[in-house]
Amino acid sequence: MPVKPAIGRKNNKNPPIFSHEFVIQNHADIVSCVVMVFLVGLMVQSTSPIASLFISLHHNVSGLEPTRESPKGDPFFYEAGWKDACAVFFYSLVCIVMHAILQEYVLDKISKKFHLSKSRLSALNESGQLVVFHLVTLLWGGDAILREGFVFNISQLWDGYPNHPMSFLLKLWWIVQASYWIHTIPELYFQRIKKDEWAGRIRHAAAAFGFVALAYGFKFQRAGVCLVVLHSLAEFVAHCYRLNSILRGELEDFLDKFLSVINGSVFVAVRLCSLVLGVLTFYFGLAGAAPLVLRVAALSLLVSFQVYLMFNFIAEAIKQRQDSRQQAQAKPKKEKKEKPRKEKAKKSMLEESDLPEVDQNTNKTLRQRAAAAKAK
User: Fold this and answer.
1) Strands 60-64 and 166-167
2) How far apart are CA 214 and CA 356, in angstroms?
3) Three-state secondary structure readout of the chain
4) CA atoms of 204 and 129, how far apart (whole Å)
5) How far apart, in Å, are the Cα atoms of 293 and each of 159, 221, 301?
6) Structure pTM?
7) pLDDT tens track of the chain, all 376 residues?
8) Comparing C-alpha atoms, which of 232, 58, 210 is closest to residue 141?
């Protein structure tokens, strides 16, 4: 006899192969198989040149492999080139796999624990991914800035332009930056993001990728890494504040106020530092080294972007204050309506508590008789 399924269980049928549901459920496995094809191709001699075009970094201008004469060799330095597009494609596949791992093993477990609504779940997934990305960007880019010595010798940002070769870690950092923002486009489909949110997220990804591509293509990698690290610091704090409000709801306590103050202070400080760094680099530092049109265009783009962000931040802060004032004005009206009833009950209870026990018992009996008479 056929075995019937237990009560409450559903027959989880696997979706047909190559259907939309199948691709969405197994996109991480599919993409990881594609990545493995490139890695296996790197091990085979006949396909190694093609696979290395996607995995390795190219356009090196200096560097030597370790030999017997020089066991340490010479460090490799790179420039930008057309082969970097192949590396961006490969590392965007890696970003899709890492995105799925973080989503499944961290964010999904957090969402199940807090039982969030659909809108808050979407915000949690977006901010959770961006918090990790901006933290990696901040740590990796900050390490590259310290290694290159840009902090202690800021003139290196423009000295020798356009001859600005990059170290291996710095070039890989730029490749990963471009790859991440490209991978966010297919993730809209893989993560079942509502189509109403597509336009805003696509604009965000396109603007970030455009900034990375322009800074990388016009050889502003040194100034660009400093600007991106500063921006990632502000975005990391902002998304931490957003995650706190998502997970803890509308609870206003010391932690919420503290994160709000930190978010505003860091945001304003980053905007000012970015403007100062942009003016020093593009207006003063590159004078005579870069064409005037290029310098003016780069500085204008940077200033307009910072003004746009500052305007949105101020508008959002004003909106939040207006909402809080409306809520504060609405609360006393409700309390005034409810106070008389509560005060009457409190007064009757206090009056009875002041009486002796015999009088309290008589009051109870009189109430019971009155209630019985009303029932008749």
Assistant:
1) unpaired
2) 87
3) CCCCCCCCCCCCCCCCCCCHHHHHHCHHHHHHHHHHHHHHHHHCCCCHHHHHHHHCCCCEEEEECCCCCCCCCEEEEECCCCCHHHHHHHHHHHHHHHHHHHHHHHHHHHHHHHCCCHHHHHHHHHHHHHHHHHHHHHHHHHHHHHHHCCCCCHHHHCCCCCCCCEEHHHHHHHHHHHHHHHHHHHHHHHCCCCHHHHHHHHHHHHHHHHHHHHHHHCCCHHHHHHHHHHHHHHHHHHHHHHHHHHHHCCCCCHHHHHHHHHHHHHHHHHHHHHHHHHHHHHHHHCECCECHHHHHHHHHHHHHHHHHHHHHHHHHHHHHHHHHHHHHHHHHHHHHHHHHHHHHHHHHHHHHHHCCHHHHHHHHHHHHHHHHHHHC
4) 14
5) 19, 18, 12
6) 0.83
7) 444 444 444 445 688 887 889 989 999 999 999 999 999 999 999 999 999 999 999 998 887 777 767 667 788 899 999 999 999 999 999 999 999 999 999 999 999 998 888 889 999 999 999 999 999 999 999 999 999 999 889 999 999 999 999 999 999 999 999 999 999 999 999 999 999 999 999 999 999 999 999 999 999 999 999 999 999 999 999 999 999 989 887 677 788 888 999 999 999 999 999 999 999 999 999 988 899 999 999 999 999 999 999 999 999 989 888 887 887 787 655 444 444 554 545 455 544 444 454 455 555 566 666 666 666 5
8) 232
Write down how long the chain is. Answer: 376
Which tokens is 240 given? 């931490």
How is residue 50 written in tokens? 């093609």
**Tokens at residue 246, please?**
């998502």
